[in-house]
Amino acid sequence: MKKQLLAFLLSLLSTLTTIAQRTQTLFDSSWKFFRGDVANGEMQNFNDGDWRMVELPHDWSIEDLPDQSDSVIGPFTKKSIGSTSTGYVVGGTAWYRKHFRLEDFAGKKISIYFDGVYMNSDVWINEHHLGNHPYGYTPFYYDLTSWLKQNGEENILAVRVRNEGRNSRWYTGSGIYRHVWLAITNPVHVERWGVYITTPVISASTAVVNIKTTIINGENRSSLKLVTTLLDAKNRTVATVETPVLLNSINKEISQNITIAKPSLWSPESPHLYHAETDLVLDDQMLDHVVTTFGIRSLEFSAEKGFLLNGKNVELRGGCMHHDNGPLGAATIDRAEERKVELLKSFGFNAVRTSHNPPSQQFLDACDRLGIIVIDEAFDHWHREKNPQDYHLYFDTSWKKDIDAMVLRDRNHPSVIFWSIGNEINERADGPGLVIAKQLINEVKRLDDTRPVTEAICHFWDHPGYKWDTTAAAFALLDVGGYNYQWKEYETDHKKYPQRIMMGTESVPLEAFDNWKLVEKYPYVIGDFVWTAMDYLGETGIGHTNLDSARPYELQTFPWFNAWCGDIDLTGGKKPQLYYRDIVWRTSTMHMLVHAPVPAGHKEAVSYWGWPDEVPYYHFPGQEGKPLQVHVYTRYPQVRLELNGRTVDEKNVSPENLTATFDINYQPGSLKAIAVNHGRVVDSVMLQTAGTPTQIHLIADRKNIKASRNDLSYVTAEVLDANGQLVPDAVIPLHFTITGNGEIAATANANPSDMESFKKPEHKTFRGKSLIIVRPKGKPGKIILKAEGEGLKTGEVVIETK
């Protein structure tokens, strides 16, 4: 009995301690969902008994459609309103409802926080309309306190989402696709996004950290203490400051300075992080506790020195990325967001542009941890539309709250180095547009004046007759000028505007070397961002290759569903242009790729965003004796090519494109490129013809993961020959089974025009590979995944969850 009483008292003490401070609960589970519109879906007595139970983050556009047919495949339909732009998926209207109960919360403030809902969401609590949030990419929150029921009575939170009409130029996903949290605070608390940390003074020996904390006085308190403690990455206390606070208004901002000796600076090479613990204390009682992660780094930009991070020059090896997670759609499962950043880092990128909207909180957290510089972008349009139902309809009434949400949420992330106010804006250089740009810049600077503001500006394809120099007034407003596809203007513009700082905010793979030569040559050109770092859903096939004809910009129709312009494919694989970029960026020394055979009498045509149809393998059954072209990418001066041990030719590497090109007739066997420098062999690379498929090999990116629903294991299925070599032309249906404490979240391959369901436990291979995304069920234990294919030895992998 005494043990039971002690356990009860400890439990009660724990509860009181928690309630006394701030609690923030992930609110992702047990949502009722209906795909379609209903009348009175916000009413408490509405019968949602037959609605489907879903878990957030949730994207209904990636789910299979009913009535599968030749024109409806998986989530894709020829009748999609978005058509090629959004990848033939379906939006529409849908409802979410969550039933929940709370115990006594007297004297507390309770709010609901959404990190992103696409789009045009309306939220009700117990039939009270909390508000409408049009933009699909910015976070928002509502105070629930006045309309909640307590003491175990049922509350109903209802959300209507409307992804209607033609409102985007790429895949958006649909629904509550980012996380939701329920927060409980005392009336006196730190405002959401109310901790703002800057580092105004930095040297090798000292850093001054300024912390501005905004306190909400919802209880008419007169005074309290604000205690801020800084801790390093190993959770060791670095410094503490305590400030008495006189609360003479509803909102109060308090500024504190803390000096740190020998600070560890944040950079892509060494992404050191600190965190600040902010405590509001009244008579030794903790009223609130907030933890904020930040980094210490200095930024300097000039046309003379370029971009200096912590006093060192940095050239931005950048890529643009849309927000989707490929076969998961837009759902921002934490590990999916982190993996994108890992891929960028592993493939040589040190910077990313979040095109063309603010990313998830988890994506920026990963950029902080792993060391990727971010251009955090706000909008794709202002007043003037790019699609009839896009954000231009809401710009006047929403731009300020959306800018505020982006900057306030993201301004403590050390990875965020630039704010971008827009992309290829129609009114970018005329009078009304300049007025808007000034408003946006002023609002960004009001909230954070420590970072440069940029904008991605393109040529005037939408304003025939405008000259490039018409952009001068727009560039004059910016701290750093963003150039989309205009690298040929850098030198001319520098002569006219010698203090302008430039970067390529979009470029194409085929011009990678042209862009990068200028980055290396001129300090005023600080980097280049390719369109795109990774394949994405929508803008179908802008990176395509065709035989005989291709226009510079031509979307491919059904069954194409992804853009195919990325350096990284939809499953995370390395595409041919990224091998070339390795040489351009000097991150590798030598690569060899072979162009796929072009039928006699035909000519390959490559789209503006595309890349020739070449592959990093030597395997073309049925093409014996037919001509092939071999490209060796390197900065070495000469390359010798050997086929089956016999020299084919030796050629100089062109300094214009870092390429040595050879013509051969295909013979199975081995193809070896040998780099020669001053007559000496200094490097080599070899490709080998594969045999016939015999087995399946499963490779998990991580075999030990958390049991959390927010973790994932990405498993690649490879079709191998008897010698364990990938068979790159294998197109084989594979079937997957899973047992244990996990489930298959999605399956996919990298083929941009081979529509299949992402939800079924089966998928064809493309170039010998397919992807299975495994998700834990929430409990520790083993997950066993098997892959089977006709005539192949079964593959198996075991994943441990803890």
Task: Describe it.
By secondary structure, this protein is mainly β. The protein has 10 helices and 49 strands. The strands form 12 sheets. Strands 23-24-25-26-27-28-29-30 form an 8-stranded parallel barrel, surrounded by 4 helices. Helix 7 (472-476) links the parallel strand 27 and strand 28 (481-484). Helix 5 (395-410) packs parallel to helix 6 (431-447). The longest helix has 19 residues, at 2-20. It is globular. Mean pLDDT is 95; it is low at 1-19.
Sketch the major β-sheet. Answer: 8 strands, parallel, barrel
Mean pLDDT: 95
* Cα-to-Cα separation, first versus last residue: 34 Å
Structural class: mainly beta
Uncertain stretches: 1-19
* Strand proportion: 35-45%
Can you list the strand order of the major beta sheet?
A: 23-24-25-26-27-28-29-30
- Helical residue percent? 10-25%
The number of helical segments is 10
- Which overall shape is indicated by the principal axes computed on the Cα atoms? globular
Rg of Cα set: 28 Å
Number of strands: 49
For the structure shown, list the relevant keywords.
single chain; 802 residues; mainly beta; eight-stranded parallel β-barrel; six-stranded antiparallel sheet; 10 helices; 49 strands; disordered N terminus
Question: What secondary-structure arrangement, pairings included, does this model have?
Answer:
Elements: H1 2-20, E1 23-26, E2 31-35, E3 52-54, E4 72-73, E5 76-77, H2 83-86, E6 92-101, E7 109-114, E8 121-125, E9 128-133, E10 140-143, E11 154-163, E12 180-185, E13 188-202, E14 206-217, E15 223-231, E16 237-246, E17 251-261, E18 274-282, E19 285-294, E20 299-302, E21 306-309, E22 312-313, E23 316-321, H3 334-346, E24 351-354, H4 361-370, E25 373-377, H5 395-410, E26 416-423, H6 431-447, E27 453-457, H7 472-476, E28 481-484, H8 490-496, E29 502-507, H9 512-521, E30 525-530, E31 545-547, H10 576-584, E32 590-595, E33 604-606, E34 614-615, E35 627-634, E36 638-643, E37 646-652, E38 659-665, E39 670-677, E40 680-688, E41 695-700, E42 704-705, E43 713-720, E44 733-740, E45 742-748, E46 762-764, E47 769-776, E48 781-788, E49 795-801
Parallel strand pairs: 23-24, 23-30, 24-25, 25-26, 26-27, 27-28, 28-29, 29-30, 42-49
Antiparallel strand pairs: 1-12, 2-3, 2-6, 4-5, 6-11, 7-10, 7-12, 8-9, 8-11, 13-14, 14-17, 15-16, 15-18, 18-19, 20-21, 21-22, 31-33, 32-34, 32-35, 35-38, 36-37, 36-39, 39-40, 41-43, 43-47, 44-46, 44-48, 45-47, 48-49
